[in-house]
Amino acid sequence: MRGALTKAGIGLALTTPGLSPATVVMTGSASAATSCSEVPTVYGIPPWGFHTGSYTGERSFAKGHGNINLEANTVSGIICQQDRAGTIIMSVRHHLDYHSHYAMMWGYPGNIIKIKVRVTSSTDPECALGTVGRATLYASYNGVRSDSVQFFFPAACRDQDRLYHGTQVNNQVPPL
């Protein structure tokens, strides 16, 4: 029960009062200037959220947050990834593809959610607006720090495929 028992004081991307994910999702051409700094960060325990390490000085970085209803299999939110190929901002598609409190990854038990994302802003010339990809968010529990976030995209956005894993990844995935 990671969210309730072990993450009471972690800092994660959440929402800023009065600022919804739709407010920060930008529209426009693939050449529109974007930055992960445009996605708000607030600290506390979210319904779901993650960051993949230090925002400055990393070759690749991602963060996201949003709401989730496991009973209704719905999810919403915003995700940003910044790397050598460029920056993409993604909205989270409404339907939750998969969730489990009994997942095993990296040799540890944890919570997992699988979601679909849609590119809403991009500085990667190969990754067009509207491209749909997938993300898997895994949060280990029982005091283990082996969280991961993985992105999967079709051929045109393949440069945005990325796996973040390890103690620098801080992931909050709700239990059932």
* Helix/strand structural class: mainly beta
Principal-axes geometry comes out as: globular
Q: For the residues shown, what is the average pLDDT? A: 78
**Strand elements, count:** 9
SSE string, helices as H and strands as E:
HHEEEEEEEEE
How many structurally independent domains? 1
- Computed over alpha carbons, the radius of gyration is 15 Å
H/I helix tally: 2
- Order of the strands making up the biggest sheet: 8-7-6-5-4-3-2-1-9
The biggest beta sheet is recorded as: 9 strands, antiparallel
Instruction: List the uncertain runs.
Output: 1-33
Tags for this entry?
176 residues, mainly beta, nine-stranded antiparallel beta sheet, 5% helix
Tell me what the structure shows.
The protein is mostly beta strands and 176 residues long. It has one domain (2-172). It is built from two helices and nine strands. A nine-stranded antiparallel sheet has the order 8-7-6-5-4-3-2-1-9. The radius of gyration is 15 Å and the shape is globular. 40% of the residues are buried.
Short description:
By secondary structure, the protein is mainly beta. 5% of the residues lie in helices and 46% in strands. It has 2 helices and 9 strands, in the order ααβββββββββ.
What secondary-structure arrangement, pairings included, does this model have?
Elements: H1 2-5, H2 21-24, E1 48-51, E2 61-69, E3 74-83, E4 86-105, E5 108-122, E6 132-140, E7 147-152, E8 162-166, E9 170-172
Antiparallel strand pairs: 1-2, 1-9, 2-3, 3-4, 4-5, 5-6, 6-7, 7-8
